[in-house]
Amino acid sequence: MTQVIYDGTFEGWLTAVFEIYEFKLKDIVFTKQEPTTAFLFAATYFVVTDPEKAKRVADGLKNRLSKEGFKRIYGTFLSETEQAEDLMFRFASYVFSTTKNIEEDLSNNEVWDIRKAARITRRESHRMKAFVRFKLTKDQLYYAIIEPECDVLPVIENHFVSRYADQRWLIYDAKRKYGIYYDLEKVSTVELQFSNDLNSTKFLAEICDQEEAFFQNLWVQYFTHVNIESRKNTRLHLQHMPKRYWKNLTEKVANLKK
Known about the structure:
The protein is an alpha/beta fold. The chain has 2 domains: about 1-125, no CATH class; about 130-255, no CATH class. It has helices at about 10-20, 50-65, 65-80, 85-95, 110-130, 155-165, 200-205, 210-225, 235-240, 250-255, and strands at about 1-5, 30, 45, 135, 140-145, 170-175, 180, 185-190. The chain starts with a strand and ends with a helix. The strands form 2 sheets. A 5-stranded mixed sheet has the order 4-5-6-7-8, with helices on one face. This is DNA metabolism protein.
């Protein structure tokens, strides 16, 4: 068995696939950043990300798959499901083993599992597009905190650029400790340290614009008034808006504090 250790990026994984074929490595297990003691007696192979090698593998996959098929591989990577990289490699091996398009071969475990993993990312990205709640800081930056199940910032970026092109904004993933910042021209990846209590009154007072509390209150009142108590369906509501997201939703924070 060989532990293939890469830097945790999609480009790094693509480079690893190239070198696995180049050096004919066998019995592969992917590991991010450093060796794991789970495979104590395994050989180790360290991958240095190479954009050219990554591009060759990506182009090879794109030539054999539809646009949606390649997106499923990336979606699987972002899903952070257990052993996602190993699943992606088995799928890629199947793709490269034939000249036929294998995307509809649902009898194959890898094809089916790739679809399921990519669906997790797609579902979570749709939720984040709906659940992002911006607050305005004193220096006129709109910021939002999210904690998605998987790493969705790369796939929701274009949505917010097109929707809020005339505003500076930051969306921060508190679970993965990084964010995306839009400066009216481009999007950059940033790493920040936020307060442990991101929704505390003290924290908001320190950084938020003086009118932000007023607009948040209007938002809460709006949701209160559009809510029809006689038609309340808690089960359906939780299905579409699971409670784990509530602490970052303006209209729900008040309920959590009760």
